[in-house]
Each structure stands twice: as C-alpha cells, then as structure tokens.
Amino acid sequence: MRMMSVLKAPVWALELATGAKSFIDNPILGSRVLNERGLHVNRVRLAQRMSAWRRRRLAHLVSPDEQAAYAREGFVVRGNVLPADGYAALRAEVDSTLFDAWEMRQGNAVTRFIPLPPEVLTHLPHLRAFVTGAPFQNTLKYVASTAGDPIVYLHVVLTVPDVGAPDPQTHFHSDTFQPTAKAWYFLQDVHEDEGPFTYVPGSHLLTPQRFEFEQQQSLLAASHPDRLHARGSFRISREELSLRGFAQPVSFAVPGNTLVVADTHGFHARGASLRPSVRIAVYGSLRRNPFLPFTGLDPLLLPGLAGRQGQLHVQIMDLKERLTGKPTSHRHVGKVRVAEPARI
Ligand SMILES: [Fe+2]
C-alpha cells in the first residue's frame, strides 16, 4: 500500500492542474491539512478566474442579454429556438426514428441515452442542423468557457414515482469545483409536477457564502458518507441553502422548443416527478481542464473524433463490462423509440 502511494504521488500532484475533483481518490486533494491552508478554495478561485478570462474571449457567441443572464444567474434560457414549422419537423423526425439506446436506472428514474454520432445524424437532417447549429453549440461553449467538442445525446428521463427508491438526482448538488456547462433543448413541454430541472440562481459565483461552504466541505469531504460528495460533487439540502443565504431555487417548467444552458458548478437538482413522466431533450455537456489559458485546441475536434464523445462513452462502458464481467451503470437496450417505456 505504501509502495503504491509512493508510485502514485506524482500522479496525484499532477492532477492538481486538471479537473480532478475527488477528495477520496486523491489524498492530496482530500488532505485536511492542505485544505485548511486553502488548497481547495484556491483551486476553485483560480478555476473561476481562468474560466472568466476564457469566457470573455467567447463573448461574441451569445447576445449581451445572455452574457448578463449568465453572469447574474448562472444560466441562459432561450424560448422558441426554432420557428414553429422547424420544431414540428424536428419532433416528427425524432418520433419516427428507431435509435440505438443505453439506459441507466437511479432509484425510480431511468435515464435513456441515445448517442448521436455523425452516422446517425446523417439520416436526421433536422436533428443534425440543431445539434451542430449556433444556439446549441455557441451557448454551451460560452457557458463552459471553452470552444471544445461537447458530449451530446438525446436524453430521456422516464420516471415512475411509486417504483423503487427516490431518484438521487433530486438532491441539490454542484457537479464539480470548476465552471461547467450542461444544456437541455426540450422536445416537449415540461410541467411543474414532472421533475423539471431546478437551479439556485447566482450559486455559480464565488460569493462569501459559497467560499465558506467550499472551505468547510473541503475539510471533511474525503470521509463524507455520501460517495458522490466525497468524489467532489458536493451535496447541499434545501434547508442548508436557505440557512446559508442562497437564493430560492427556480424550476424550469418550460414549453417544448426551449433551450436551457446552466453552469452546473452552481447548485441544481432534478425536481421530483409527482406522476409518471417522460422528459425528452437534446442534451449537451461541455467541460475541459479549468486551468487552460486558451479556448480552442481540443483534440476531440480532430476529424474522425468530432461529435463522437457520446458514442465513445457508451462503447467504453460496454467494453469495461465485457472485460470485467461486472455490470456498469449504463446498459445497451437495443433499438427503441425515443418515448417508449424503460427496458431496464
Ligand atoms: Fe448535476
């Protein structure tokens, strides 16, 4: 064990300069002594500064109003993204296609992931135009503060409230210590009782209360009983949010054809679904090394790799399952229609 630590120490040290976030897997990041001296909060602060610097260079990608909305709230919302006939055509195209899908169960919710590599999109001109188009790509890049290649899926959340444990994603949390972007373009109306995305406005900023929260969590995170918290996705209860003076959460019960892009370093959760529901969205996620002094040079944008991250992700998990014999969180379920009931 000691030998292992000696061998791994340089790797742990190098990880300080990356997006590594786990307090339990990296003893340097998890060190109480170092975090008492400000290691974690200084990483948070530097990541914010570098991110703000890069984001200024990407300001041309969104409107001044959207820049202001992001700065103030931590999210950008755009309604009626496509003209009505374009939206209807995109819906018809998605509804009438059989897609190769992977599913993951978390409590009473199943998330269906449908990768959209170029060979799938080539048969779906409306979906391809949206996924590669300016509203989706540019807003993601601006919020993520990088012009890298996002991971993109058709993303379906199927919830049956009375079956199984509560969905763990209904707990408020921050995805990681650095600014990071997630986007949902909803392909049908999302109602308040169907588990809408919920976000604490302004919680993406390193305000004095966020600084204090980060500092306190960093001292205890390595031994926190919640594994996700220990891995650097800090959990926070509704009560603690209001005790610490954060804003009231807002929920995105929005009509179809709305794009929501949020910095999920800010606190967010999936609202509880009070009735069986199916939420369909084009989903994108974009996060790179927080300390990069440039916005481009993403190797994943090289010819042959661009637009393939979703596919690569599920393929790697399938391979892992075959090699280890242990089931992974995502299961290939074959060809499905986008809104059909869960198969796992
Ligand atoms: Fe999250």
Write the layout of secondary structure elements.
Blueprint: H1 2-15, H2 32-36, H3 39-57, H4 64-73, E1 75-78, H5 84-95, E2 99-106, E3 109-115, H6 118-121, H7 125-132, H8 134-144, E4 151-159, E5 181-186, E6 197-199, H9 208-220, H10 227-230, H11 238-243, E7 250-251, E8 259-263, E9 268-270, E10 277-286, H12 309-324, E11 331-336
Antiparallel strand pairs: 1-8, 2-3, 2-11, 3-4, 4-10, 5-8, 5-10, 6-7, 6-9
Describe what you observe in this structure.
This protein has 344 residues and is α+β, with helices and mostly antiparallel strands. It is 35% helix and 18% strand. It has twelve helices and eleven strands. A hairpin with a 2-residue loop joins strand 2 and strand 3 (109-115). It is globular and about 55 Å long. The mean pLDDT is 90. Residues 173, 175, 264, 268 line the site of fe (ii) ion.
